[in-house]
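User: Hello, beginner here. Can you help me understand these amino acid letters and fold codes? It all follows right here:
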Amino acid sequence: MGGYTYPKAVVFDLDYTVWPCWCDTHITPPLRSTSKNRVTDAYKFNLALYEDVSSIITELVQNDVIIIGASRTATPRIAQELLSLLHIGDKPAIKYFDSLQWGQGSKIKHITKAAKQLQLEDDLKDGQFILFDDEMRNRDVESIRCHFAYVPDEERGLTRQIFEEELTKWTNSRRKQ
């Protein structure tokens, strides 16, 4: 472990953060597993989680961090199916998420809804949430004291380096308070 601590909750955008596509425009059902960590669609488009995502989610679970998915997808059923077919270890990825928030609109709405559902409103107000997301427009979550962690490379998605750097930034900002 680096020079960081863990927040109460980590929020993941899905498209181009945990997997390399937009599930509402790049994926055509039916979907089928070709292995525990790979899925193919009707046009043989192959999909897997980005390389470091499984170990990051496993680490968060081992450290009792609540995991939330927040996606603007117009096809939540496809996103749910992908999370059900893609595995982390022996379990479907969807089993690692404590809350999944879908639909159009701001990530502020997704995060506040998840915080309410999980009775974490005080933790959110206390700055105990981090959002990993590939879209800079979602930096507006900082207005609700959620740390914004930018995932800039759609080829690599969320990497171990970004994860550790952002946890370190979040930890350092907490120490200054």
Notes: The chain has a mean pLDDT of 95.
